[in-house]
């Protein structure tokens, strides 16, 4: 089963959030429905980047790398 690392951006605060999921569309809907505590104040959120990973473990490892590097910096260093 494929997993994804996704990066969303708040249109309200212009900050980024990075997460991993097998169903990014559903996850984005949860963020925008204020069902996620860490992103509740930034609604609305838009999808900025999605990276396909072969396994859940690979996706979780990439998520950690992106967060450690800084999401904005990682985006700048990895253009589509």
Description:
The radius of gyration is 12 Å and the shape is globular. A three-stranded antiparallel β-sheet has the order 2-1-3, with helices on both faces. It is α+β, with helices and mostly antiparallel strands and 80 residues long. The chain has helices spanning 24-32, 56-69, 71-77, and strands spanning 3-10, 16-21, 45-53.
> H/E order of the elements?
EEHEHH
What is the mean pLDDT?
97
Helix count, DSSP H or I runs of 4 or more residues: 3
Question: What is Rg?
Answer: 12 Å
Structural class: alpha+beta
Strand content: 25-35%
Helix content: 25-40%
Number of separate strands: 3
Major sheet: 3 strands, antiparallel
The oligomerization state is: single chain
Shape: globular
Calculate the terminal CA-CA distance, rounded to whole Å. Answer: 23 Å
> Uncertain spans, ≥5 residues at pLDDT below 50?
none
**Sheet with most strands: strand arrangement:** 2-1-3
Task: Write the topology of this structure.
Layout: E1 3-10, E2 16-21, H1 24-32, E3 45-53, H2 56-69, H3 71-77
Antiparallel strand pairs: 1-2, 1-3
Write a compact overview of the structure shown.
By secondary structure, the protein is of the alpha+beta class. The chain contains three helices and three strands; from the N terminus they run ββαβαα.
């Amino acid at each position: 089963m494929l997993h994804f690392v996704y990066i969303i951006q708040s249109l309200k605060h212009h900050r980024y959030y990075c997460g991993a999921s097998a169903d990014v569309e559903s996850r984005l809907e949860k963020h925008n429905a204020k069902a996620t505590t860490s992103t509740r104040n930034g609604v609305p959120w838009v999808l900025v980047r999605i990276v396909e990973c072969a396994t859940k473990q690979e996706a979780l490892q990439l998520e950690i790398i992106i967060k450690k590097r800084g999401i904005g910096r990682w985006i700048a260093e990895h253009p589509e």
